[in-house]
Structure formats: structure tokens, C-alpha cells
Amino acid sequence: MNFFLSTDLVIGVNEALKLADYLSGLAIGQPGIIYDANLADNLYFRNVLLELTTSYPESIVYCNDFKGEPTYTHLENVADFFRKNPPDGIVAVGGGSTLDLGKGVALLMKNNVPALSLKGFPKDVCDPLPLITVPSLLGSGAEVSYNAVFIDENEGRKLGINSRKNFPRKAVIDPQLSMTAPMESVISSAMDSLVHCVDSFASVKHTPLSRIFSVEGFQKTFYALQQGQLDRAESRIDLAIGSVCGTVALMNSGDGPTNGFAYYLGVKHSVPHGLAGAIFLKEVMRYNHNRGYEKYALLNPMRTTPSPKEATIELLEEMDALYRQLNIPNLVRYGYGKGNADDFARNASEALKGSFSGNPVDFNQESAMEVVLQLI
């Protein structure tokens, strides 16, 4: 069994105001700061940025106003921006896409090659600039992962730059930064955590240690969503812990059909990744349960029966209620019905066989069709 953890992590209210101290600890003297344009009107973030640029007046600041997930072309353009006045470290503040952009820029600053040449799982790359990630949404887990998602526009696919060298040197999680985010974005990110936890829990590559993180991450996130008090800092910290746990579990196991479906729907219809995963999560779980997979019972923190089958049924009923509470949509919203369900199932299956292979029971195009039909 192999298991790894690589990022120095701090979680707490007002921790982002200490960024200058964390930069000093990494011996960064001229930081490149990449922040999400969605934070521009956040008064707390303005204070964070002011504190940082006052302490480091030579900072190079870039506002990431790119809509959607970054492309390799966008990464190349941002790297060129920083090459004009090279920093000695990167601070990325924002959602998962902005944090991924920070990883890509940090790597390209030390590897003067086209961004596309690094797609996939590059080898023989130089160490990147030290990177500090500061998430403004809690769920993608980008703040502690080595994966960085980028879209290849020519192929119309999410591929990314996936190297363990991408690990941030420090992640600073401050719930204050997420307080002005639209609630639909908060929920989408939290649902992304649930997908990570469930996919990693059931993955054929799971380990006893990864499952500890899967279970804890699921229960923290699920409970926070159930309570409906996401405007409280305490709930946001639960979401942060759930995000970290789910991502650590996923990195140390593997994904499954839900994540595969999410990537396909997200690219095709520009659906936020967390929401796209949420659409399929419950029905993939139900598909597995109906074929005898009863271990989801271990995810149920409130189970009232020792029977794994009945505990799994209880959990699925609670998830049905949560989906109604959060207004999670089905595929009809995106133009799918019985007439084109087969096309969706076939295309998703062809594009994402790797994700499907991680499922604990056999999952193929016919399986995908069965799940899709439950969502139209």
C-alpha cells in the first residue's frame, strides 16, 4: 500500500491576512500574485491583497478574468505576462481554475517550453517556483492536489498538467474569502467534494488508509450541506476539511464513473464541474447498490440499522432529500431526453473508459445508458 501527503496546510479564519509571513517562510521576495476576478469586489480580499502588496511592493499582480476552466493557450499567455518580470514565487487566490493556473505558471517559469508540451503526465521537468494556494471556494481540492486541469481547445478535452512537482508548498484556507461567493457556486464546489469522496471510497484502487479520508470527507461535507447553514464560517471550515479529505483520498485511489460523466457534461455544456458530478453521483451509487454493492453503508453517519443493505438504502433516501433541498437538476435542463440519451451514453463511454473502469462493479456503455435514463 502506498499513500502520500505533500502540502503544508493551514485552515482558519483570517489566515489569509498572514500571507506575507508565509511568503517569508518560503524565502519568496518578489511574488507573482494571480487572483480570481470574482474576488475583485470582496472587501476582505482587498484587505488581503493590500497587506500582501504593502509587505511586498515589488509584487507582480495578475487578475484572472478568464471565463470557465483555463485552456493551454490561456496558460501560455499568463506565463508570458510573468516572464516579462519574473517572480521568485507564486501566490494563487481563487477558485479551482485559478489555483490550477497558478500551478501551470509556477511550472512554466522554470520550464521554458510550450504549455501543450506538458499536457498529460510530463516527465523530466524542472522543479517549479514555490507556490502558495489560497482557495476562495471549498470543494475542488485544487489547493492540495498536484493535478492542474487545462482544456485542449483543438481536441475539446480536459487533459491538464499532472506532475507531483505541482504540489503547492503551502495551502492557506480562510473561510472569510468564500463568504461572498454565490451560494450556487458554494454548493457546486461542495458537491464536487462528495463526488471525490464517493468515487475514491468505491474505487477498485482504494486502500484502507484512503478510505479513512473518503469517509471523513463525505461526512463533514454531507452534514454541512444538510444543515443548510453555509453562511456560517464554521460550516465553511467543515467544507474545507471535507474538500481536503476528498482530494487526498482521490489522489491515493482513483476516480469512477461519476467523475467521468462530469468531465464529459462539463466540457460539452460548460457546466461547473461540481454540479456536473452531482447530477450523476446519486444514480451511479444507486446503480451499484442495485447490483449488490453495499459498502456505501460505511459512508452513512446516521445509520440506524446494522444491515449494510438497509443502511445504504437509508443513505440514498437522505441523498434524495438533499438533492431536493439543493435543487440539483437532471439532464433535461441540458437538452437531453429519450431521443438522444443513447448518444450521450455512447460518447461519454468512449471518452472516459478509464473512469468507468474504476467502478466497483462492471460499468460499460449499457450501464451508462441505465444511469442516463434515470436522469431524463
SSE map:
Layout: E1 8-11, H1 19-25, E2 31-36, H2 43-55, E3 60-64, H3 72-83, E4 89-94, H4 96-108, E5 131-135, E6 147-148, E7 151-152, E8 157-158, E9 161-162, E10 170-173, H5 183-202, H6 208-227, H7 233-251, H8 257-269, H9 273-290, H10 308-326, H11 341-351, H12 353-356, H13 365-373
Parallel strand pairs: 1-10, 2-3, 2-4, 4-5, 5-10
Antiparallel strand pairs: 6-9, 7-8
Helix pairs in contact: 3-4, 5-6, 5-7, 5-9, 6-7, 8-9, 8-11, 9-10, 9-13, 11-13
Walkthrough of the structure:
- This protein has helices at residues 19-25, 43-55, 72-83, 96-108, 183-202, 208-227, 233-251, 257-269, 273-290, 308-326, 341-351, 353-356, 365-373, and strands at residues 8-11, 31-36, 60-64, 89-94, 131-135, 147-148, 151-152, 157-158, 161-162, 170-173.
- With 376 residues, it is an alpha/beta fold.
- A six-stranded parallel β-sheet has the order 1-10-5-4-2-3, sandwiched between helices. The chain has a two-stranded antiparallel sheet with strand order 6-9.
- It starts with 7 loop residues before the first strand and ends with a helix.
- The mean pLDDT is 93.
